[in-house]
Each structure stands twice: as structure tokens, then as C-alpha cells.
Design goal:
Blueprint lengths: L4 E6 L5 H10 L5 E6 L9 E2 L4 E8 L7 H7 L2 E2 L3 E9 L7 H11 L2 E10 L15 H20 L38 H5 L23 H5 L12 H11 L7 E4 L3
Parallel strand pairs: 1-2, 1-4, 3-5, 4-6, 6-7
Antiparallel strand pairs: 7-8
Helix pairs in contact: 1-4
């Protein structure tokens, strides 16, 4: 089938998922429109035709699609339109993220052509997979985009495409609230970059050192944006927990790829 336009939609707090999606899209030979859904502000309704391809990327939070991303993706509709789905995870496991993403998009009128799970730096324990994606990961990202495009080119009608088989379970695993929240410290210069960038508005402008734990999703965006390193996990036990988590998840995980058509 002939694709006239690509819509890339991504939730990317630390910007790595965005980079992975952009790497995939570079291998697709059609005009691309980007939609960054890393925000508490809902995007306008988006409806794709059968000749438009959707590429979606989200991080895996506790083995699930972030709730904020799910709420945004409910506004994206297709007409038996093709879609590619990608998740990133911090070298532990992505569990039910891809299956949940597939179910959400299928219910909204899309047919999944391909799916992939890539490894990225862990959003909380940043000493885990700190150099991922690396050169080999990026090569696989490129190959995934190229193969997906070839499959699309050979498909006449997405309505007759076989159902893709993806690793994951239903019912999905329970969403766990991580009891760790980044805050600022005495080095904070009140630049308010964390306030402006927080996807859930968990940081108040009048006191950017603090974090509203009822809103925070521990995505790490404030840590990435802070120019002086003030924002971090300032817990007396954090270093020990970080070392324990790294030891339990030190074995290198590799990307997993899935295609509707071999």
C-alpha cells in the first residue's frame, strides 16, 4: 500500500523515546508530522486515513503504558489505518506495555504492522542502562524501520493483515505507584525549567524545590532539564537502593521486535 503521510506520536519525558521514534521514522519514505504528547494539555483530536501511518512511542512505567499517554492516545483515531508501536524500558522488563498499547490503538481503528521494545536509561535508577540506546541499538532501530516499511509496501489492504503476536499478558499487571519522587535542594537557582517542563504539573512555580507527590509520576524530566543538578532523588537510602537495583538488573537486555507479516 502507498503511505502518503506519517504521524509520529510520542510520550518522552527524558527525550530518549522521542529519539528512538525519530530514528524509526527516518527509515520511512513519507512526510512526517510530529505530535509530542508529553504534557498535561490534551492534544486536539487526530484522525488518520487508510493511507496514513501512525508511529507511537511510549516509555514503560512499571510494565504499563503511562496513564498520561493513554489519555492522550484516546484522542487519536484511525480508519483501519496502519500503525507501528514502540516502547522503551530501563533494562528490567516492559511486561504488558506493548500489548496494552496494541489494544488501545486497535480499539481506536488501527491495525498494528510492527512493534518493538528498546532499552533506554532507567528513569529513576539512572546508573542502569546509562549508555542505552547504544550504537547497536540504533542499528536495530534503523532495521526495524526499514523492515516495517517493506512490509507496508507489500500490503494491499490493512483489513486483511494478520493479527500481530506480541509478548505480554491480559489482564495487564497492576499499576504500581513508585514511592520515590525527585526534589530540588539548596543549589536550586529557581530557573523554573522543571516547572515549565513537568508533564503532570507536579512542581509549583513559587517553590520549585518541592514536588507534589500526588501528581508526580517519577518520569525524571525535571532531572534532565535542571541546569545545575539540583533536581534528583534526595533520599538517604537512595544510593543503596540504586546499587541493589543495578545488581539485580545488570544483565544486558536486547531489543525485541515483532511483525504482523514475516
Amino acid at each position: 500500500m502507498e503511505i502518503h503521510k506519517v504521524h509520529s506520536v510520542f510520550f518522552s519525558a527524558a527525550f530518549t523515546t522521542k529519539a528512538i521514534v525519530q530514528g524509526v521514522v527516518k527509515q520511512l519514505h513519507a512526510d512526517n508530522i510530529q505530535h509530542d504528547i508529553t504534557s498535561s494539555v490534551l492534544i486536539p483530536d487526530l484522525r488518520l486515513g487508510r493511507d496514513e501511518l501512525l508511529v507511537v512511542g511510549v516509555p514503560s512505567y512499571s510494565g504499563r503504558v503511562p496513564i498520561q499517554a493513554s489519555q492522550q492516545l484516546l484522542r487519536v483515531k484511525g480508519d483501519v489505518s496502519p500503525a507501528m508501536i514502540v516502547c522503551s524500558y530501563g533494562n528490567r522488563d516492559y511486561e504488558d506495555t506493548l500489548v496494552e498499547l496494541k489494544d488501545l490503538l486497535t480499539a481506536n481503528g488501527f491495525r498494528i504492522v510492527s512493534a518493538a521494545a528498546f532499552i533506554a536509561r532507567h528513569s529513576i535508577f539512572r546508573n542502569v542502562a546509562s549508555e542505552r540506546p547504544d550504537t547497536e541499538d540504533n542499528r536495530i532501530v534503523d532495521d526495524f524501520g526499514c523492515k516495517s516499511w517493506r512490509i507496508l509496501s507489500d500490503i494491499r489492504d490493512t483489513g486483511t493483515m494478520p493479527d500481530i503476536k506480541i509478548r505480554g499478558n491480559r489482564p495487564y499487571r497492576e499499576i504500581l505507584q513508585v514511592p520515590l519522587y525527585p526534589t530540588g535542594d539548596a543549589t536550586c537557582i529557581s530557573c523554573k525549567k522543571c516547572v515549565e517542563g513537568c508533564p503532570t504539573r507536579a512542581i509549583a512555580s513559587e517553590n520549585p524545590i518541592k514536588t507534589d507527590e500526588s501528581r508526580c509520576i517519577s518520569c525524571g524530566r525535571c532531572i534532565v532539564l535542571c541546569p545545575v543538578g539540583s533536581r534528583n532523588y534526595h533520599y538517604p537510602f537512595f544510593e543503596k537502593k540504586s546499587l541493589e537495583f543495578a545488581a539485580a538488573n545488570s544483565e544486558r537486555k536486547e531489543p525485541e521486535l515483532f511483525y504482523a507479516v514475516d
